[in-house]
Amino acid sequence: MADAPGRKLRRYQEMRDFARTAEPAGGAAGPAGHRFVVQRHRARRLHYDFRLELDGVLVSWAVPKGPTLDPKARRLAVHVEDHPIEYADFEGVIPSGEYGGGDVIVWDRGVWRPVDADPAAALEDGTLHFDLDGEKLAGRFVLVRTGRGSSDKEQWFLLHKQDEHAHTGWDAEDHPRSVKSGRTNDEVAASPTALWHGDRPAAEAEEPVGWEPVSEDELAALDALGAKGKWSVAGRSSP
């Protein structure tokens, strides 16, 4: 866990063609922090991408059934390649034919707080305890490494501890909307609002696509202008 973020992202970058995919390529590490994000990802199979910011990258697991607040449930979590920090806000469509092709929403996000003094070392040892403070997920969780699956990827369990946030029977599929846009995967797939260009600097990579909803007040103000004056609607401006 101590190598440079660029080296950590090598596997991620080798698996993608950034001339075709809207995913961020990643570059220099962002500011240190403890953000987490869960992205609902409909690729070849539906799964939830669970990501913890650590040492300049997003350490990532694919969770087929999604995280849960049910302390009696053990969720399989397959350790996948680290992702760039910029990916934490990605919501859109990965083109068909690309690795992970499908639609992605930001299903939950917030901050995580490691219980262990050295979370990188705890991950290396195979057990990480942490607290989540998100819009859907909250409370004490633990990731436990169990071995390797048929794909030779590390398999872990993601569990919620018994605490004040525990909720028996809680199912991610009962909460399908994005915390970023309020939209579902179907809605994002049908009309993405942004593309991400992996060959641009992260600050310039996101490109709005299409029109966002316009309020009645904005329409009235535009009508009052007639042929005169300057206007700006849904992020677009007059010449």
Structure description:
The chain has helices spanning 5-8, 10-14, 119-125, 185-190, 216-225, and strands at 35-42, 46-54, 57-63, 75-84, 92-94, 102-114, 127-134, 138-148, 154-160, 194-196, 206-208, 232-233, 236-237. It has 239 residues and is mainly β. Strands 1-2-3-4-9-8-7-6 form an 8-stranded antiparallel barrel. It has a two-stranded antiparallel sheet with strand order 10-11. It has a two-stranded antiparallel ribbon with strand order 12-13. The relative contact order is 0.17. Mean pLDDT is 81; it is low at 26-31.
Structural class of the helices, strands and pairings?
Answer: mainly beta
List low-confidence stretches.
Answer: 26-31
Helix proportion of residues, in percent?
10-25%
Sheet with the most strands: spatial strand order: 1-2-3-4-9-8-7-6
The number of E-state strands comes to 13
Anisotropy-based shape: elongated
Q: In terms of quaternary structure, what is this?
A: single chain
User: End-to-end distance, in Å?
Assistant: 50 Å
What would you report as the Rg, rounded to the nearest angstrom? Answer: 20 Å
Overall pLDDT level: 81
Reported for the largest beta sheet, the result is:
8 strands, antiparallel, barrel
State the helix count: 5
Proportion of residues in extended strands: 35-45%
Order of helices and strands: HHEEEEEEHEEEHEEHEE
Q: In the residues, how many domains can be counted?
A: 2
What's the layout of helices and strands?
Elements (H helix, E strand, L loop, with lengths): L4 H4 L1 H5 L20 E8 L3 E9 L2 E7 L11 E10 L7 E3 L7 E13 L4 H7 L1 E8 L3 E11 L5 E7 L24 H6 L3 E3 L9 E3 L7 H10 L6 E2 L2 E2 L2
Antiparallel strand pairs: 1-2, 1-6, 2-3, 3-4, 4-9, 5-6, 6-7, 7-8, 8-9, 10-11, 12-13
